Amino acid sequence: MKYDHFDRYWIESLGGDHSEFIYNKDQISLPLPPAITNDSRFEMEVYARFMRHLRHVPNSRMEIKILSAIQFTADIMDHGDALIAKTLVDLGLRAPRKAFPVTFLDFADKCVQRRDWVGSSIPPASVVALREHWDHIGENRFASSGRSHYAVYNENLYVRA
């Protein structure tokens, strides 16, 4: 068995039968550490905790590892999943939609749906770049339009009026 962690390339040979898994490097780009300044303490802590946990997630799918690391970082730092995901996207994280929490996807979809921004409220450049990345890798352009309500199993058991 040959495994090269950096390239995500795995070939397993079982007696003449070759099964091959090649991870497409164009789909996922991990974030870079922020420049060290007094204002970047939060970003550096998010980056360090995310990258540390990313290595320890026991899963072979990178999307699941990223989602798990985002949720773990948010829980440890006591911040929302969307804030942690946005911070990592600002640092350069590019991944398919299934690697991000639903709260961040709602934020990103609402940001890029409206193209005519007036004056002060323009969408973050990192979110626009992420949307362009999703278009480049072939994500569904209309994934946000089909979601208006999330069904929860036995919702009446969890919500009391």
Give a verbal description of the structure:
- By secondary structure, the chain is mostly helical.
- The chain has one domain (29-158).
- Helices cover 44% and strands 9% of the residues.
- The protein contains 6 helices and 3 strands; from the N terminus they run βββαααααα.
- The chain has helices at 41-56, 62-77, 81-90, 102-113, 125-137, 155-158; strands spanning 2-4, 9-14, 17-22.
- Strands 1-2-3 form a 3-stranded antiparallel beta sheet, with no helix packed on it.
- Strand 1 (2-4) and strand 2 (9-14) form a beta hairpin.
- Helix 1 (41-56) crosses helix 2, helix 2 (62-77) crosses helix 3 (81-90) and helix 3 (81-90) crosses helix 4.
- The protein is globular.
- 16% of the residues are buried.
- The model is unreliable at 1-23 (pLDDT under 50).
What attributes does this structure have?
three-stranded antiparallel beta sheet, globular, disordered N terminus, 44% helix, 161 residues, mainly alpha, 9% strand, 6 helices
Count of DSSP-assigned helices: 6
Unreliable stretches (pLDDT < 50, length at least 5) are 1-23
Mean pLDDT: 77
Strand content: 5-15%
Distance between the termini: 57 Å
Supply Rg: 18 Å
Structural class: mainly alpha
- Main beta-sheet strand count, sense and barrel state: 3 strands, antiparallel
| Tally of individual domains | 1
Order of helices and strands: EEEHHHHHH
Side by side, the strands of the main sheet go 1-2-3
Query: Percentage of helical residues?
Result: 40-55%
Q: Based on CA inertia axes, which overall geometry fits?
A: globular
Number of strand elements? 3
Oligomer: single chain
